[in-house]
Fold this protein.
Amino acid sequence: MGLTNVIKVLLIEDNMAEARLLQEVLKGATKQEFGLFHEKRLKNALNTLESQRFDVVLLDLTLPDSQGLNSLLPIISKNSHIPIVVLTNMNDEDLALEAVRKGAQDYLVKRHITLDILVRSICYAIERKQMEEKLREANQTLERRVEERTIQLLKAQELNQLKSEFVSMLSHDFRNPLNTILLSTGLLEDNYDQLTREQQLSYFQMIRNAVHDMNQLLSEVLLLGKADSGKLQTNFCELNLKIFCQQIIHSLHLSFENNNQIVLNFEGDFKNEVGLWDEKLLWHILNNLLSNALKYSPQGGQVFVNITGEEKSVVFSIRDQGIGISQESQKHLFEPFYRADNVGNITGTGLGLSIVRKCVEAYEGEILVKSELNCGTTFTVILPRQQLLMSKMEESVGKM
Ligand code: ATP
Ligand code: MG
């Protein structure tokens, strides 16, 4: 605000004589024009402040409807941008100083007011208030920046922590099969001649399994890494869904020893035997969900796979009657390395479902889980039909 314009002053003073005196004093000002508006009560003054703009408030600290510092706070709280000069009687300088501490910009002792002092005090209060405002804004900007940086830092810390957790769990899961290989090769080396042919073969088998596990772990971690860096893309090829599912189920039946059976059922529209599917992604999805269903089920349990062909999507539902997943665990299922606490001695790395989710995401599909402890679990995966998308594309190309 430039001081060459008229400075609008709101005087809050119940004593008429004092008010008139101040008015007279201000009239004498030559370098700067002042417009004085007078209110006798705090309540009225607050109303006036709401409806009009003022450059400064002159506030008497002894009003009929408010005493001392009590007058200051209501004005400041509603008009934080207006500078205030308090008017006090002689012997009341302590109160005046307290008012300055509480937010007034300056104070004047009534009987000592001269034109010079009054003009200087008003201009000084306005300047000081402007400086305060600028400082406050700068402070706020600074606070905001600190807050933003803190959030960024926390996120980075969290990410770092996640990374180091990931690495330590991964090395742990790698060490198990490595140890098996080390022990088995050591035993074979030292005792080859004393071992029976069957024992030898069983050690070789253990080594082979360990290598297989490590290989599987590595490819899963690579897949997760690809998904995280956005490189997991779909690659659709023609595939006979029924045969593909039967093959997965057949190889799972071979590798699982607990005699659990998978019952496969197709419903809905599969007139076109061959559809467009990303074979790799679909394999990861079905293989992980089915092997979970098998391994988290009791001996001899059944797993029901229902595949429904709908107009725009195919719905895969995999239901088991196994150990189930608690509500609390369901929230974390898809986090890498997460394993629920009811798994007992069933082995696993906790990576399967996080891979499933990434594959479903790459597919732009959906995955849902419904489960009850000790009753069973149903995973439902909904994947959009690709041949529809393709024929739509062809349609729109045809229209062009
Ligand atoms: P792996 O990486 O070898 O698959 P995992 O089976 O432990 O190990 P996920 O497939 O990611 O890992 O599953 C995470 C957890 O979810 C499991 O450890 C288990 O607690 C729970 N879970 C998954 N599927 C089922 C299911 N069908 N029934 C009960 N619990 C399940
Ligand atoms: Mg699993």
The first helix runs from residue 16 to 27.
